[in-house]
Structure formats: structure tokens, C-alpha cells
Amino acid sequence: MRLVVLGGGESGVGTAILGKKKGYEVFVSDFGKIKENYKEVLGINGIVWEESQHTEDLILNADVVMKSPGIPDKAPIVKKLIEKGISVISEIEFAFPFTDAKTIGITGSNGKTTTTMLTYHLLKSAGLNVGLGGNIGKSFAWQVAENKFDVYVLELSSFQLDGIINYRPDIAIITNISPDHLDRYEYKYEKYIDAKFRITMNQTEEDYLIYDVDDEASSNWLEQNKTKAQLIPFSLVKTLEKGATINDNKMEIKINQEEFIMDTEHIALEGKHNLKNAMAASSAARLMQIRKATIRESLSNFQGVEHRLEKVLKIQNVQYINDSKATNVNATFFALDSMNVPTVWIVGGVDKGNDYNELMALVREKVKAIICLGVDNRKIIDAFGNVVDMMVEVNNMKDAVKTAQRLTEKGDAVLLSPACASFDLFENYEDRGRQFKQAVQNL
After folding, report:
1. I want to staple 279 with a disulfide (CB 3.0 to 4.6 A). Which of 35, 118, 130, 244 is the partner?
2. 107: annotated binding-site residue?
3. What positions does the domain Mur ligase central occupy (predicted)?
């Protein structure tokens, strides 16, 4: 059997290693450059690779192709593979048959990294033999090849779900759905929503789907489509017979005739959206039979995720907050919503078709000045030019932070929450967040 891997990054190299171990003839092809450390790993494992090109003769003879999530379906080589009827799948789909571990699959437009990390933290604190993978950390396939975990917590993007055929999580979580990555879905929101719900397509009556019942897109989809999985809803506002709710500042979870209650003030993560993430993760932990005391303790000591509403430093009584991971409007909405002091907001980058109108009320209420940090800031200036008193354009992080410091007074906050992708001025959102933290430390 010939396995061709398109993309020589973390998921590609992990898949190649697992494929080789399972007796496939493996070839890795990357249209860009492969990092040196990955080349070394491929070499040690005797795996043939190429970079800066796709040699068709070596690709179109595959029995199965694993495509990295970053490669769109409209890439010429992918089109040719599909025309030839060759199966093109994601890493998750390839690795799934080679493990009998339980998997908890987590997707959503926002909150999925926090929910994934929190779920992993809950299970690990309970002493379970658990791996973390998918869109985050070490490749799932690589771990299946080298480790023996009993459970995997997997963060799954819509691109990874596009490439599944048989993958079936024991527990699926959909945190929420809002327009994102529409450029990959012909600008049709329905297609993107359907992609997210692929997570539940193979689930049976023995499996569970945890979802936000307050989320319009999720609720509508479930009204119009069927899943066999047992539904576990969570809500900030509704009273539910089953699932998770917030009642009088208490989180209440009712699953399998058992109730779990915890004061929300003891939950380390701040903000309404994090209550949702906590409800989703705790519901999964309860389904995995984690003890209530362990869940309480883990929720109260969880540190959160880097670049997601991360408190960096307080300087002259001004709090600097790194929310670089907010790459869409919905994520920035949650960030602004959680601010309770006058805020200088650093925003901008590569716009993915953003509609800034939904931020208008929050900006009026909370933002005293806006710093635009992007190559093209026209849309942001058009949207908020008349809403705030002060608007400044900069083209590097150092200037953004220095300007922010000049515009603040005691008791204010500076929030980096770009609502955009980072590729115009930075390598990725991590690079953007680290540069922000560095600039703050240099003040």
C-alpha cells in the first residue's frame, strides 16, 4: 500500500511515521519548505520526501493520501487526486483505526483550544493516561505510533473534519459556531456549519455530543438534522432537565441522574465565554466518570491558554492583556465583553471578511482609543472612526505598545485582540502574541 503525505509539517510527519510503522510505502511531498528538524526525523525513519514541489508521478500512484489541513481542496494536486478517485483524508482519519483509545473530539469557531486544554487538564489531574493532539501539541498520528494512551483529547478544525470518513469520537464537543474561514467554504456559512457537524456524523447511541444550546447555528442544525449521539446541552440562560447550566452563580451539571454543582467564583478562568468552556469540559469529565472533587480542584487551578486573554503585566496600574489568539470578530467580542475598565484596544491584521458591526455597542461602552496594527486598516477606521475619540495607525508591535502606554492612565487596560489573522506583519498569532509580551516587558 502506498501512502502519500501532502505537507511536511507536524501532522504530515506524524502520519508518515505511523504509516511507515504499519507497513505502508510512504512518500512525503511539500510544496513549500520542510523544517530541518522534520527532515531529520524523516531521514532517521527512512522516509522519502521532496520539498518546493509536487512531483505528480510520485503522488498520483498513491492508494491513499493524507492532506495537511492547511492545503485547500482547490489546490491543483488535490483536484487531480480526487478526479482519479484516490482517497484524500486527514491525519485524524488515517490514525483513528490504529488505536483503540477513547477520543474526545472538540471543535467550534472559538473556545476550542481553551476547552481542549481544560478537558485535558481535568482528565490528567484525575490520573488518566491521556494524550493531547489534533490542531494542538504533538501530532495525533505520531502519538498513536509511539505512545499507548487510553484517551486522547483532540482539538479538531473544520479542515480536519472535512477529511474524515469513519472517524468517530466517543464524546464530541461543539463549543459554538460563528462565521470564520468562509474563504475555504465558497463563502457559504451553511457549508462551514456542516463541516463542524461532521464531528458527529459517525457517532452511535453509545456516544455523546456536548453543544451550546444558546448558539443559534448549532441549535438550528440539530433541529433540521439527525445525530444518533446522546445530546448534552449547556447554556448560560436556559433551565435544562439534562446538561449544564448556570443558576444563581452556580454551575450545575446533570448527567445520568447525577448532579454536580460548583460556585462560579471558584472557577479560575474569567468571563462568560469561559463559563461555557468550563461547562463543556466538565460535562466531558463527568461522562468520563471523573470525581467531583477533582473537577472542582482542576477548575480552580487551571491557568488558561497562552495568547488567550492572558494577563501579561501591570505597569503604572495599567493591565496589559494578550489575546492574540482572537483571529475573528466573535473571539474579540468575548474579549471586549470581559473588560471592565476603560480599554485601549489594539486591533487589525488580515481581514477574513469581518463584519465589525457586532462589536459596535461594546466599543462604545468600553474602548477609549483604538490602535490599528495592520497593513490595511481601512475597514476598521471606517467602522470605528466616529465611535472613539482617538485612533492611531502603526505598523509594528513596538510602536503599538508604546502608543498604547501614552494613551492610558491609571486603572485602564491595554488589550491586544486583533479580530484578524496575523500573516501581514507576523509569522502567526503566537509570534504576534510573543512580540506583544516582549514589547510590554521592555516598557
Report:
1. 244
2. no
3. 106-284
Question: What percent of the chain has a predicted confidence (pLDDT) above 90?
Answer: 81
Residue given cell 493531547 in the structure block? 132
> Does the pLDDT value for residue 192 go beyond 90?
no
pLDDT single digits (tens) 377-429: 999 999 999 999 999 999 999 999 999 999 999 999 999 999 998 888 999 99
Is 23 annotated in a binding site? The answer is no
- Is the domain of 232 the same as that of 345? no
Q: Is 108 annotated as a binding residue?
A: yes
Please tell me whether residues 291 and 329 are part of one structural domain: no
DSSP-based three-state secondary structure for 199? helix
**Same domain flag for 118 and 98:** yes
- Tell whether 239 and 388 lie within a shared domain: no
Quickly list H helices, 130-182: 140-146, 158-162
Q: Does one domain contain both 206 and 65?
A: no
- Statement: the pTM of the whole predicted model exceeds 0.70: yes
Is 103 marked within a binding site?
no
Task: Answer yes or no: is 119 a known binding residue.
Answer: no
Separation between Cα atoms, residue 351 and residue 362, nearest integer Å: 20
Which domain does 258 fall in, by range? Answer: 94-301
Q: Where are the alpha helices (DSSP H) in 51-155?
A: 56-59, 76-83, 91-95, 112-125, 140-146
pLDDT tens for 212-242 read 999 999 999 999 999 999 999 999 999 999 9
Q: What is the CATH number of the domain that holds 269?
A: 3.40.1190.10
- Residue 118: closest CA among 175, 159, 169, 158: 175
Say if residue 15 carries a ligand binding annotation.
no
